[in-house]
User: Fold this.
Amino acid sequence: MAAITSEALFPGFCCECGRLFKMPQNLPGGLGSVAADLPFNVLMGRCLCPACVEQFRAVSAPLCSHCGQPFVSPQGPDHVCGQCSEHPFRFQSARAVGLYEGGLRSVIHQLKYHGRDQLAAPLGRLLWQTLIHYWEPCRFDRVVPIPLHPRRLRERGFNQAHLLIRQWPAIAAAAGLPMPSDWIDNRLLKRHKETLPQTGLKKVQRETNMHHAFCLEPNRCIRNERILLVDDVMTTGTTADSCALTLLCAGAAEVRVLTLARAVL
Assistant:
C-alpha cells in the first residue's frame, strides 16, 4: 500500500509530452557507478516517460571528423563534410551526445529556462561518458565552459555549461583519474560583448555577431595548453569557433568542443 500511495502522490511528469508516468524504481545515482556507461533512458528515466525517452537519437558515426555533424546516410566512414572543407572551424574537432530534438531538447530547456538544476547531474554524466568515448580526459589541461554575458548570467542566475561539468572532478576521482584543482576553469573566458541569438542569422551575420565577443581574464597564461570547451548546444558552431579563436590567439595548443546536443541543420 505504501508503494502505491507513493506512486500516486509523486508520479513522474514528462518534460517532453507533459504526461504523468510511473517512474522507474532504484535508478542509479551518485558517483558510485561511474565506470558504468549508463544509457540515456536510465539517466533520464525520472524526467521523460518511456515513450519519449526512446525517441532520443545519439550522434553517431558516420559524422564529420572535424565539426561532428552527423551525415544523413548511415553508410560509410567518418570524413570531413563539405562545409568544413571550404570553411574549417578554428577548433580541432567537436563532438556531441545527441541531436537537439525531442526529449533531449526539452530537458535542456527545463535546465536553462526553468531552473531545474537537478537535471545538471545526469546530463553532466552523459557529457562525461561522451568525453571518455572520444578522448582521454587527461589529454586536456583545462576544461572551460562557454561563458554567458554578465547581464544574461544575472538574469538566469547560473551558467548551464558550468553546471553540467561541475561534478566532473569528483567523477574523475571516483574513476581513478584525479585531475588538478584548476582543471575546471570557469573564469578563463569572458563574454564582454552582448550578442544576438544566432538562430535565424545568415553566416556573415553570425560571424559579425560573434566578432570579438570573448576575451581572456587578465594576466592569464594558457600557452601550449590543450583546452576542452563545453556547452549545452552547438547550432552553427560560430560561438565555439569565436571562443577557439580567442584561446588559440592567446597561445593554446589546441581547442576541442563537447556539447550535450547538436542542432539538426
Observations:
- The longest helix spans residues 120-134.
- Confidence is low (pLDDT under 50) at residues 1-10.
